[in-house]
Amino acid sequence: MQQKVLITREVFPECVARLRAHFDVEINESGAAYSAQELIRRASDKDGILTLADPITAALIDAAPALKAVSTVSVGYNHLDIAALNKRGILATNTPGVLDETTADLAWALLMATARRITEGEQVLRAGEWQEWRYDMLTGSDVYGATLGIIGMGRIGQAVARRAQGFNMRVLYNNRSRVASDIESALGAEWVEKDALLQSADHIVLVLPYTPQSHHTIGARELALMKPTANLINIARGGIVDDAALIDALREKRIGGAGLDVFENEPALNPGFLPLKNVVLTPHIGSASVPTRRAMSNLAIDNLIAALGVGPHAGQPPNVVNPEAHSSASSASSLSSGAARS
Ligand code: DGY
Fold first, then answer.
1. What distance in angstroms lies between residue 91's CA and the mean position of ligand 1's atoms?
2. Catalytic amino acids?
3. Across-strand partners of 24?
4. Which of 27, 141, 229, 262 could form a disulfide with 7 if both were Cys (CB 3.0 to 4.6 A apart)?
5. Tens digit of pLDDT per residue, the chain (342 long)?
């Protein structure tokens, strides 16, 4: 009997066809996310799940006894309950590498739009409020020659730093561990303590993964350290910034502005952002170019096919995020065979 796969949302048809060549595929073609209950129901008889941002919870995992692999079409995987997957020995995979440049482009789009008040200017025009040219109209901050601070210096952080060279910027970064010195030299990037970065940078870009440790990396204390003219850009994950504290700082003009692609509790948006002019908002579109979304989908499918034991990499998907699942799977099976013998 063919293994069964669930695709939680519509994805490129050629990607679905690649899965159909090996598996019995069910796809959510409704145009909307399944409710939590519906997702659990649909997952309950599946061997594999391709998730497009839909949460894979402990309740879902408990309800899906045949589940062997979960492949997310994203590099971030904080919507997967890794501890629950590990307990069952279920492999989880993600899509690193293929979205770095596109996501770095969006960081720069937000940085430029925030520094130069692009969306605010467009709103003035659309509202018919432009009466005359004024020397101080929509004056923002400089990017060329300014100091860029990057928190999180993985692949995407490095792609953000590479672009700064064209803007003749001083680049500071903070990361749990320093990157290799040849990479630092190639990027012209200097490691500094987080507080020093917050105090010195004109534009700060957040590019770190969401974990319990990175929760509220930027809160009221950190915002208070920033220059009153500095801009904060978050392309990483909601929860890394304390949105309520950021709204206060923006409202009271204690920082220059913010460019945000990700939010706490998204897709819900803290309504406090809406009246603020000094924030540029986009709906989590960091990797949203057609070629990149296609590359992510295909990589996620390579991962799922391999994780379900098919094809040239059978059993060895290229992008496993929980290699420890293998050992828990074997200890779980030896425990259960032990239990069966006794
Ligand atoms: C990612 O790949 O993590 C992007 O943020 C899309 O979720």
1. 19
2. 237, 266, 284
3. 4
4. 27
5. 899 999 999 999 999 999 999 999 999 999 999 999 999 999 999 999 999 999 999 999 999 999 999 999 999 999 999 999 999 999 999 999 999 999 999 999 999 999 999 999 999 999 999 999 999 999 999 999 999 999 999 999 999 999 999 999 999 999 999 999 999 999 999 999 999 999 999 999 999 999 999 999 999 999 999 999 999 999 999 999 999 999 999 999 999 999 999 999 999 999 999 999 999 999 999 999 999 999 999 999 999 999 999 999 999 999 999 999 977 655 444 433 333 222
How far does the centroid of ligand 1 lie from the alpha carbon of residue 1, in Å? 34
| Residue ranges lining ligand 1, Cβ < 6 Å | 53, 74-76, 99, 286-287
Supply the residue whose CA is at minimum distance from atom 6 of ligand 1.
Answer: 74
**44 vs 278: CA distance, rounded Å:** 46
- In the chain, DSSP assigns E strands to 4-7, 24-27, 48-51, 69-72, 91-93, 147-151, 170-174, 189-191, 203-206, 231-234, 257-260, 279-281
Tokens 């720069």 -> residue: 108
Q: Distance between CA 199 and CA 284 in Å, rounded?
A: 27
Rounded to two decimals, the pTM is: 0.92
3-state secondary structure of 22: coil
Out of 72, 74, 156, give the residue to mutate to test ligand 1, the one with the largest number of ligand atoms within 8 Å of its CB: 74
**Ligand 1 atom closest to Cα of 296?**
2
DSSP letter for each residue of 207-272: -----TTTTTSB-HHHHHHS-TT-EEEE-S-TTSB-HHHHHHHHHTTSSSEEEES--TTTTS--GG
